[in-house]
Amino acid sequence: MAYELKLHDNMPLKIKLRGRKMTNTPTPLIAGNWKMNGLAADSLSTIGELIDKAAKAGSMRCDILICPPAVLLRDMASAANSSAVNIGGQDCHMNEKGAHTGDISAEMIADSGATYCIVGHSERRTDHGETDAVVQQKASAVHRAGLIAIICVGEILEERESGTTLGVISKQLSGSIPSGCNSENTVIAYEPVWAIGTGKTSTADDVRQVHAHIRQEISGKIDGSDATRLLYGGSVKGSNADELMAVANVDGALVGGASLKSEDFWPIVNSCI
Ligand code: PGA
To answer: Is 255 close to ligand 1, i.e. is its CB under 6 Å away?
Structure first.
């Protein structure tokens, strides 16, 4: 019986209890972040392939999410309607509407048919100077619109090398998590910045340490912290997904480059099936 097994991190997800009570173990989430990639025709054909693969797979052991560029949200959401594939935004403004040229609100993302929105991705933090306080307001906006927020945190290489990773993550979590978070409306994604798009990934030991720390830190900040999904991101691909998804407290992945083609993304989904 599962409870009597000696647990170790290479154990398949199916029987891994992650050190939590079985009832608290959430459905994993495999999320693709397409960033600024994809024109309509190719994107629609990729989403079609994913929908077909999910339909053929039958009952899924994980939730699947694709976050396309904002201009494709409505078409993608309508293509994925009633399928196992969820659609999400990559960012939103904190206000509901107003004079913010070029921005889109969480309500607009919800109106497109999407159900999730990423906030605080390191590329937003770096390229657009987004602070924890801004990320917190955006996460609140995502909840206001009835969407699920994926709040991203992660250290840069200098912080990793100077041994300050856990402190950096604590600070980002305290500053970025708004009130009103629960395990249903919030997902946390840990993405070491130096691992994003570089082909480098954290070791399973490092991921285990950071995810255990995040699990501890969100207690008291997120209602149902034990059941809140914690994703790992940063050069996740088919060849490393099994190992990363088997790490304690890892409840899925946020995938960039390897989510752009269904044949690269599906093996990552399969690491949970
Ligand atoms: P990557 O991107 O998988 O290409 O490293 C991950 C992300 O930025 O979410």
So the answer is: yes
Q: Catalytic positions, please?
A: 121, 191
pLDDT tens digits, one per residue of 98-142: 999 999 999 999 999 999 999 999 999 999 999 999 999 999 999
Strand ranges in 61-211 using DSSP code E only, listed in sequence order = 63-67, 85-89, 116-119, 148-153, 186-190
- Beta strand 148-153 with 186-190 is parallel
Indicate whether 21 pLDDT > 50: no
pTM tops 0.90: yes
Which residue CA neighbors atom 2 of ligand 1 most closely?
Answer: 256
Rg (CA), the chain: 17
**How far apart, in whole angstroms, are the C-alpha atoms of residue 172 and residue 188?**
11
Ligand 1 center–CA 94 separation, angstroms: 24
Residues 6+ apart with CB under 8 A from 271: 13, 30, 241, 242, 244, 245
